[in-house]
Amino acid sequence: RFEFCEPAFVVGNCLEIASDSHQYDRIYCGAGVQKDYENYMKILLKVGGILVMPIEDQLTQILRTGQNTWESKNILAVSFAPLVQPNRNDNGKHDTVGLPPCAVRNLQDLARIYIRRTLRNFINEEMKAKGIAQKAPPKRKRRRCRRRRINTYVFVGNQLIPQPLDSEEDEKMEDDNKEEEDKDHSEALKPEEPPRNLLREKIMSLPLPESLKAYLTYYREK
């Protein structure tokens, strides 16, 4: 459904990123950034990019509006462990961390993305023309019934002793709650039907070779 790129992971200290690294559209830092490294983190942003990081006990969102201009706003007060300080090797220099290069997708991937996007737009237009709203079904809320107890008093000798007693209405409500719980349990045991994948159905109906259909549906071996 989405054209997310495959993630690439690099192990290393983010304060030791190589100086020739490219810039990013979105950056999130999950540890407290010292004030000395604020500009270092901001330089990693592209113009128009957004950086979210905790700094001075405030979760801060920074938008880069130009080559030398940024807009900052505090989101909420937080408490994060600080970033690990860079380590120096035997020569007294930092071990730089190299990030994956920004590679352009090959023509096959771009064609697959474009075909899927075109089919998805057709499906959305058809559903809109039929008046079908694309909304997730709301979750069912269980009713909670309050039990009402009736206090009765019993005379024992010369003493008046209060004694709680369930009314007939309470018993009926208990039975209804049990029936509702049994119904919910039986519904939970029923196997859920998988949601209808209109995009996959559209692709499979095309007059294309099976191998190409499998590639368009992204069920392929790498």
UniProtKB/TrEMBL annotation:
Metal-binding recorded as keyword: no
Region of interest (Disordered), residue spans: 164-203
Top-level division of the source organism's lineage: Eukaryota
One cellular-component annotation, GO: membrane
Compartment(s) where it occurs, according to its Swiss-Prot or TrEMBL record: Cytoplasm; Membrane
Biased composition (Basic and acidic residues): 183-203
Family matches, as InterPro entries: PCMT, SAM-dependent_MTases_sf
UniProt entry tagged with the keyword Cytoplasm: yes
Keywords carried by this UniProt record: Cytoplasm, Lipoprotein, Membrane, Myristate
Membrane-topology annotation of the record: Lipid-anchor
Coiled coil stretches, renumbered: none
Bias type Acidic residues, positions: 166-182
Signal peptide: none
GO molecular function: protein-L-isoaspartate (D-aspartate) O-methyltransferase activity
One protein family per Pfam: PCMT
Location (main, coarse): cytoplasm
UniProt-listed PANTHER family: PROTEIN-L-ISOASPARTATE O-METHYLTRANSFERASE, PROTEIN-L-ISOASPARTATE O-METHYLTRANSFERASE DOMAIN-CONTAINING PROTEIN 1
Family that this chain belongs to: Belongs to the methyltransferase superfamily. L-isoaspartyl/D-aspartyl protein methyltransferase family.
Its job: Substrate recognition component of an ECS (Elongin BC-CUL5-SOCS-box protein) E3 ubiquitin ligase complex which mediates the ubiquitination and subsequent proteasomal degradation of target proteins. Specifically binds to the methyltransferase cofactor S-adenosylmethionine (AdoMet) via the N-terminal AdoMet binding motif, but does not display methyltransferase activity. May provide an alternate maintenance pathway for modified proteins by acting as a damage-specific E3 ubiquitin ligase adaptor protein.
Protein name: Protein-L-isoaspartate O-methyltransferase domain-containing protein 1
Originating organism: Leucopsar rothschildi
Highest classification ranks of the organism: Eukaryota, Metazoa, Chordata, Craniata, Vertebrata
Name of the gene: Pcmtd1_1
